């Protein structure tokens, strides 16, 4: 029996890789495109939110020489203006889940949707109530994180899409890999290429330039969505630490007293967030930030008014997400340049899907 020569085996392997690449594109390519486009939009999340809410609300003008008010004032003023809002907590400007220069007070509106009150951080004046769950901004976030599917199912689907995207990129790289052409020619579109050939070269060359950052975004996306799939610990529950020194206790057990206890427990740090207790036996959860932007958390029990530091059960997971996974997925740890690359990668996914689909349809029609 004669063995097939090397060129035949190579052709067979190439056909297999092409079928795998094509199968991924035809089955989940649209999902790749949606995740990429929504991710690109989230790079521009502040302009996106400003377009929906208004610049005067998202970025209120500062009052020179006046310090920011405390969180208890933000919550009190927001509750006065919007008594229907069941307040859950508040965040300082830039420390919460929404961009901008305004403080936010968040809670539940009837019948349970998340509502956000934008508050001027210095005067405490409420600037407007934002129905977050009904907003376009929330739709973009949910589209990127779970494709608008129910929470658990959506996370699973997006996690598999991240793995599929990595496989699609690698199979595409194999198909593009230069065999007989010179390297520098492989990274440019031939001047004589026209029509369908021009589109094929554009599809391959553009993906080749973006291969590395796209693989990073796919891997970090899976790690953030389904860390256990990569052998990483998931978000760990927080718990108070045991202290040799007595905790700092406030004179009162209301929010003002809790903030005072937190400030005394960790002087020199700025209070940037607070979650209200769920009942008389609960505790205030207070987040602080050092001048070096290192976060720390305290709990202040309602019954005692005493502040106790909080640690993550798995500290390495918290540090990994905060210092590596989130920054890599947001801007590749490259600041504004990285944000530009992430935006281009996000917009490239629907473009690559559209060109690949068109090439497949053309080939089906013309043989």
From TrEMBL:
The keyword Transmembrane helix applies. The keyword Transmembrane helix applies. The chain crosses the membrane at residues 20-44, 157-177, 206-225, 336-361. Pfam families: PepSY_TM. Keywords: Membrane, Transmembrane, Transmembrane helix. InterPro entries: PepSY-ass_TM (IPR005625). This is PepSY domain-containing protein.
């Amino acid at each position: 029996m004669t063995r097939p020569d090397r060129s035949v085996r190579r052709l067979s392997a190439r056909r297999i890789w092409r079928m795998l690449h094509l199968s991924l594109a035809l089955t989940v390519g649209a999902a790749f495109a949606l995740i990429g486009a929504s991710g690109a939009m989230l790079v521009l999340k502040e302009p996106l939110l400003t377009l929906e809410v208004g610049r005067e609300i998202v970025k209120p003008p500062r009052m020179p020489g006046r310090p920011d008010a405390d969180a208890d004032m933000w919550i009190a003023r927001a509750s006065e203006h919007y008594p229907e809002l069941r307040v859950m907590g508040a965040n300082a400007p830039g420390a919460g889940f929404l961009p901008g220069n305004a403080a936010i007070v968040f809670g539940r509106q009837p019948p349970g949707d998340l509502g956000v009150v934008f508050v001027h951080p210095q005067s405490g004046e409420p600037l407007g109530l934002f129905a977050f769950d009904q907003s376009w901004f929330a739709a973009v976030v949910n589209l990127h994180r779970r494709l608008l599917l129910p929470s658990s199912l959506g996370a699973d689907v997006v996690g598999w899409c991240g793995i599929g995207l990595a496989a699609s990129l690698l199979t595409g790289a194999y198909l593009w890999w230069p065999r007989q052409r010179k390297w520098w020619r492989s990274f440019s579109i031939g001047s004589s290429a026209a029509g369908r050939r021009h589109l094929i070269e554009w599809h391959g060359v553009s993906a080749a330039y973006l291969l590395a950052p796209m693989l990073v975004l796919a891997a970090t996306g899976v790690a953030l969505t389904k860390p256990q799939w990569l052998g990483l610990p998931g978000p760990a529950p927080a718990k108070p630490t045991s202290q040799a020194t007595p905790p700092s206790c406030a004179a009162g057990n209301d929010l003002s007293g809790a903030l005072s206890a937190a400030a005394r427990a960790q002087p020199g740090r700025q209070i940037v967030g607070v979650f209200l207790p769920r009942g008389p036996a609960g505790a205030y959860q207070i987040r602080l930030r050092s001048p070096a932007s290192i976060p720390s958390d305290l709990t202040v029990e309602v019954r005692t008014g005493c502040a106790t530091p909080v640690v993550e059960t798995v500290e390495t997971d918290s540090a990994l997400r905060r210092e590596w996974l989130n920054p890599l997925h947001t801007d590749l740890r490259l600041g504004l340049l990285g944000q530009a690359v992430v935006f281009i990668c996000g917009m490239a996914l629907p473009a690559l899907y559209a060109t690949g689909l068109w090439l497949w349809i053309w080939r089906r029609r013309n043989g």
